[in-house]
C-alpha cells in the first residue's frame, strides 16, 4: 500500500470533507431519492435519476477519501528545518528570464492548489527543486517550454 504524504493541514481538510459527505451530503441525497421516488414512475423521473447520480458521485468520493486517509503519512512541517528543499518547504524562486518572483509550498497531491501557492511533490517543478539549496538554479520543462529559476529562499512554517 503506497503511503500518501501530506501536511497536517491537508489531512484535516480531507477529514473535514469526509465528515461533511457522510453526515450532511449522504442524508440529504437519501432524502432527495425518497422524495423523487414518491413522485411515481421511476423510469421517467429525472429527479430520481439525478439524485441517484449524485449518490453515486458522493459514495465514490467517500471511498476515495477513506482510502487516502488510511494511507496518509502526515508530515509535521513545523518540525522541519534546514536549507535544502524537501516536502513541506516554502520556496521563493525568481524566474531567470522575466525576473518575476514566485513563492511555492511543496505539499501532497491532494492538497495542491496553484492559486494558493501550493504545488504537488510530484509536479515537475517540485521534483526539480527537491534536494537543492538557496542559490541553486533549476530548469523545468513546463508545458510552455523550458523555464529556469533560481532559488532565493527556503523557509518552513
Automatic annotation (TrEMBL):
Which keywords belong to this entry?
A: DNA-binding, Elongation factor, Protein biosynthesis, Transcription, Transcription regulation
Protein's UniProt keywords contain DNA-binding: yes
Looking at the record, the residues that make up the Transcription elongation factor GreA/GreB N-terminal domain are: 4-74
Biological process (GO) annotations?
DNA-templated transcription elongation; regulation of DNA-templated transcription elongation
What PROSITE patterns does the entry give? Answer: GREAB_1
Q: Which family does it belong to?
A: Belongs to the GreA/GreB family.
UniProt-listed PANTHER family? TRANSCRIPTION ELONGATION FACTOR GREA
Instruction: Give the protein name, as stated in the record.
Output: Transcription elongation factor GreA
Instruction: Please give the organism.
Output: Blastochloris viridis (Rhodopseudomonas viridis)
Amino acid at each position: 500500500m503506497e503511503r500518501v504524504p501530506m501536511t497536517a493541514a491537508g489531512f484535516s481538510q480531507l477529514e473535514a470533507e469526509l465528515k461533511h459527505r457522510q453526515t450532511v451530503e449522504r442524508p440529504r441525497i437519501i432524502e432527495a431519492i425518497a422524495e423523487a421516488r414518491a413522485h411515481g414512475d421511476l423510469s421517467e423521473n429525472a429527479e430520481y435519476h439525478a439524485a441517484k447520480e449524485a449518490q453515486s458521485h458522493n459514495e465514490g468520493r467517500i471511498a476515495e477519501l477513506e482510502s487516502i486517509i488510511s494511507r496518509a503519512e502526515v508530515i509535521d512541517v513545523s518540525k522541519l528545518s534546514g536549507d535544502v528543499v524537501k516536502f513541506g518547504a516554502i520556496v521563493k524562486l525568481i524566474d531567470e528570464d522575466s525576473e518575476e518572483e514566485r513563492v511555492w509550498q511543496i505539499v501532497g497531491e491532494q492538497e495542491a492548489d496553484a492559486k494558493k501557492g501550493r504545488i504537488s511533490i510530484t509536479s515537475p517543478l517540485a521534483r526539480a527543486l527537491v534536494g537543492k539549496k538557496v542559490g541553486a538554479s533549476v530548469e523545468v520543462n513546463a508545458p510552455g517550454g523550458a523555464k529556469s529559476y533560481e532559488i532565493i529562499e527556503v523557509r518552513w512554517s
